[in-house]
Amino acid sequence: MDASGPAVVTGASRGIGRAVALALARRGFDVLATMRNPDAGAGLADQVASGGGSIDVARMDVTDPDTFALPDEVRVLVNNAAVEREHPAFEATSMELWRAMYETNVFGLIEVTRAAIPSMRRAGGGVLCNMTSSSILAPVPFFGPYRSTKAAVSAIGESLRAELAPFGIRVLEIMPGPIDTDMLADSARPPVAIEDPDYAAMAQRYFEGRSGVEDQKTSTADAADAIVDAILDDDAPLRMACDPLAQGLLDAWRTTPDEDLMRAMLPAWTGEA
User: Fold this and answer.
1) Is position 102 annotated as part of the catalytic site?
2) Less crowded by CB within 10 Å, the N or C end of the chain?
3) E-state strands within the chain
């Protein structure tokens, strides 16, 4: 696709969302960078510099449709807004935690996408870009709520790929790995499951293994450039990575039988050879 016209990015106050909003504007799109607190977007438009595009900042809470004010004829929607919570053992995970994560990561995304599709149809087509996670390709313990929200978005994207193809709307799923964001920094501690004697050993193994990603982080700017490249590439596949670690996982997922891949990964957490 050509880099022009309106683009919307949710969760653009920081991290990947902020970097993608800037990258889209620098390529030529007129970007609506949305966030719960617009004060967090102060100065964002001034960072675009040259490139032919622009950024406007607007308040949008994806869990509150009354805050939605999408531009007419949207050509790109990047569903980036998401939350993460603590990671207890499954049996100790409250329904409140499950519902909080689904409200933003799934139902909020659904509401924004439903609002945007008619606008994208009027534009004659475009790209719907959903941010999921490369973690859905691995049996990561204690991350059932977070991973399941991203897996739900992945399945939704598959269905939308078929539904929206007749309107020239391409669906893209980006599956990030360790990107240098506040969310990644916040995860640099053991999951709360480590406080449960029945799960402490596994939680400790998870934490020790997770520490290895610190040397494999990708900057938000580099990740955003890869994401925008995929948005502009009409031949891009449905699922794409935006960093080397995620690309490796995705390549393994595409080339290895599912059970073989799972069996190879499980010992890292179970401690069994």
Assistant:
1) no
2) C
3) 6-9, 30-35, 54-59, 76-79, 126-131, 169-174, 239-240
Q: Looking at the predicted structure, is the pLDDT value of residue 201 above 70?
A: yes
Say if 1 falls within a structural domain.
no
What's the total number of domains in the chain? Answer: 1
CATH number at residue 127: 3.40.50.720
Q: Is 31 left (phi over 0), alpha (psi -120 to 50) or beta?
A: beta
Q: What is the percent of the chain where pLDDT is above 90? A: 88
Structural domain that includes position 37:
6-270
Q: What is the pLDDT of residue 273?
A: 64
Beta-sheet strand order (sheet of 54-59): 54-59, 30-35, 6-9, 76-79, 126-131, 169-174, 239-240
* 0.90 exceeded by pTM: yes
- Quick check: is 244 in a domain? yes
Dihedral, 158, 93, 179, 155 alpha carbons, nearest 10: 0
d(C-alpha 227, C-alpha 172), whole Å: 10
